[in-house]
Amino acid sequence: AEVRELLGEGRFRVCVDGDEDFVEEYGPDEEGSEWRWPPQGRSRATEWVAAGFTRPRPPRAPTNFLAAAAGGGTVQVLQDGGWWQAAIADDKLLLGPPPATGSGPEKK
Predict the structure, then answer these.
(1) Tell me: the pLDDT tens digits for 36-66?
(2) How far apart are CA 95 and CA 47, in angstroms?
(3) Choosing a second label site near 73 at 20 to 30 A (CA), which of 12, 26, 42, 55?
(4) At a CB cut-off of 8 Å and minimum separation 6, what does 12 contact?
(5) Claim: this prediction has a pTM higher than 0.70
(6) What is the distance between the alpha carbons of residues 87 and 64, in angstroms, rounded to a whole number?
C-alpha cells in the first residue's frame, strides 16, 4: 500500500495494490490488525520479475477521446483488476456489450 494522505490524529489514507478504487483509511488503533510498519531499512515491498513478464503501459487517451468515440463505440475498461467490455453512449461509459440496434422496448 502507498500512503496518499496524512489526515491528522495519526490517521492516514492509503492506496492498496496500486488500485485507485481501493483506497482505505486507517489509524493507530488498527496497527497490527489492519496495518504494520515496514521492516527496518525497507520502505516498500519489492518484487523482482523477469523482463519477459513486463510490458510498457499503454499511451494516455487524448483529451477529447470520449467525444471522438461517441456514437456507440466499444472500448475496454480496466476496473477492479480486470478488463471489461463497455460501450460509449452520450459521452458516458456503459459497462457491458453495446445494446443491439433495433431491439428492446421503444422509447416514447
Answers:
(1) 887 776 666 667 777 777 777 778 878 877 6
(2) 33
(3) 55
(4) 3, 5, 6, 25, 26, 27
(5) no
(6) 16
| 15: number of Cβ within 10 Å | 16
In angstroms, the CA 47 to CA 54 distance is 12
* CA separation for the pair 72, 86 (Å, rounded): 10
- Name the phi and psi angles at 67, rounded to 5: -65, -40
| pLDDT less than 50: residues of the chain | 102-108
CA–CA separation, 50 and 44 (whole Å)? 20
Cα–Cα distance list, 26 to 6, 23, 48, 94 (Å): 10, 10, 28, 33
